[in-house]
Amino acid sequence: MDILSFIKERVRFNRNELAGAFGDIGTDLPLIIGIIQASGVNVASTLIMFGLMNILTGLIYGIPMAVQPLKAMAVIVITQKISANVLYGGGLSIAILMILMTVSGLLTLLNRVIPKVAIRGIQFGLGLSLVMVSAQKYLTGNSVKEYILGAASVLILIFLRENSKYPASLIVIVTGLIYSAIFSLDFGRIGSNIGFSLPAVPSLTPDNILDGLLILALPQLPLSLSNSVFATHQTIKDLFPDKNIGIKKIGFTYSMMNFINPLFSGIPTCHGTGGLMGQYFFGGRTGGSVIIYGSMYITLGLFFPGVFSEIIKIFPFPVLGAILLFEGIAMIMLIQDVSGKKSDLFIVILTGTVAAFMKNGFIIGLILGTALFYLTKYHTKPAD
């Protein structure tokens, strides 16, 4: 198979792929902004490498396989003002941990042992988290105009949900662009600071990698296993049952991204079940959606890093919140296939509640849901 045939099998570009491309921006953009502001990472490198990982993932998988910043790492970096080099060291550290789990077969073993109801619980918990973040932080604007923008975005997404001719998220993004052009953007500042930048190579030390392991990688690993690997694998089976994508492939590409990113000052990234669902929900069906999405970040990084603080106003928070809200609802709706059995539904709701509301809830919920499944199965097993 030649390279053009390979790409054509995995990538389409149309209005639905374009609409799907922005299905995860409500999660990604605030985290990227927070990391840049807290750690002093190179803006151009951050945007270019994040975009490149999206493009590579779109080509490798041929589905809207989302790439996201590592959430637990991002929260620690933002709250504790961790330096850029320690962040890059954390990326290398988690790449090493994930590749060891993948090649040893431990990832495959865990995937075989963890039941579907526990994964559904993790998906439910993530959906709850996204809905709460959307409602509490994004949709509640700082002015009457922002409240109106948020309400209008939600209504557009409701009424155009099934409309393939006028994709809902694309209309919402355009509405946000018009709003920003009228009320927020300083076009003079943008025009006067256009330039050209390339990724920078950091100077990492062994101490950076060790600190990154202890401060960032170890707290991140449980969330990555539950959400980025196991839940993403289940979501792929839900949405693309004809795709034979194994757990090892997800482990390998997760590792690959985090071996590459730190070498060129890129922030650590993962796959994400919420991002996959978000892009699918709004129309993405091939790698085209993530390639379009990644191209946006590469363009911003190559030509506009000096005015990134102005560029981010293009996507007002109420618009991001509306997209995030529906991404969360789509995740929650995945529990429909276990709702017919009361014991399974109980495990899913309990697991999801723990995941959404407890510290380290995703790994605790995963363990709890798995234990309850096997206890229930043993308790209800007929006597010989």
Per DSSP E runs of 2 or more residues, the count of β-strands stands at 2
Q: What is the CA-based Rg, rounded?
A: 20 Å
Report the mean per-residue pLDDT as an integer: 89
Low-confidence stretches: none
Strand content: under 5%
- What strand order characterises the main sheet? 1-2
Written as H for each helix and E for each strand, in order along the chain, the element string is HHHHEHHHHHHHHHEHHHHHH
Largest sheet: 2 strands, antiparallel
- Overall outline: globular
- Between the first and last Cα atoms, what is the distance in angstroms? 55 Å
Layout of helices and strands:
Layout: H1 3-10, H2 15-20, H3 25-39, H4 43-61, E1 67-69, H5 71-80, H6 84-103, H7 106-113, H8 116-138, H9 144-159, H10 168-183, H11 187-192, H12 206-239, H13 247-260, E2 269-271, H14 273-281, H15 288-303, H16 308-311, H17 317-332, H18 342-357, H19 361-379
Antiparallel strand pairs: 1-2
Helix pairs in contact: 3-5, 4-15, 5-12, 6-12, 6-13, 8-12, 8-17, 8-18, 8-19, 9-10, 9-17, 12-13, 12-14, 14-17, 18-19
In words, what does this structure look like?
The chain has 384 residues and is mainly alpha-helical. The chain has helices spanning 3-10, 15-20, 25-39, 43-61, 71-80, 84-103, 106-113, 116-138, 144-159, 168-183, 187-192, 206-239, 247-260, 273-281, 288-303, 308-311, 317-332, 342-357, 361-379; strands at residues 67-69, 269-271. The protein has a two-stranded antiparallel sheet. It is built from 19 helices and 2 strands. The longest helix has 34 residues, at 206-239. The protein has one domain.
